[in-house]
Amino acid sequence: xxLADYTLSLSKNEWKALDQKYFKHSTNxxxxxxxxxxKLKYDDQYLHIAFECKQNPYWKxxxxxxxxxxxxxxxxxxxxxxxxxxxxDRYLELEINPNNILWIGKIHNPxxxxxxxxxxxxxxxxxxxxxxxxxxxxxxxxGTLQIPLALIGNQKTKDYxxxxxxxxxxxxxxxxxxxxxxxxxxxxxxxPTMSGKSPAFHRPEHFGLLHLK
Length: 213
What we know:
Strands 1, 2, 3, 4, 5, 6, 7, 8, 9, 10, 11, 12, 13 and 14 form a 14-stranded mixed β-sheet that branches. Strand 7 and strand 8 form a beta hairpin. The protein has two helices and 14 strands. It has one domain (3-212): Immunoglobulin-like. It is globular and about 50 Å long. By secondary structure, the chain is mainly beta.
């Protein structure tokens, strides 16, 4: 789908939902069966994100309970965002899991996903200033994020490149230290990264556009 299909304009203090209710597989862009609902708004200080991860029956098996540990090994909802409209090689990565735990880092991706070499400057949970919450149900979980605009960049910025991701288990895990693999989990995106054989999220040329009116 063209970039225009992954463009969102927000008016101040007004919630707006993503048109797409089903994320796409990162490998080939095919629609995933799990419904993922996302809406956003902004104010003078924060970008607000509310999300619902449905058809997620194994959320109770997530074991990470310490901020800035390797949440991406299990089930998460993720946001990648950078200032401007150019394809970024630096961006904020924010993850939240069903235990209401965060991973926060500024990513340096010099090859823009085509050659490796990624690195992350971690941001301490205490210094990030992110407000967050999670609610869980029988087969789903949902949450909210309030991301300080100052954490993303210049608070006067109106245009951003952004993408949203979800890792969701499709089977139960017997061991407590389990890690997601493509056979056991779906790696899905708002704007699919079209990574081919293996799932990959760090493909910033596929980030969508976010405009703050």
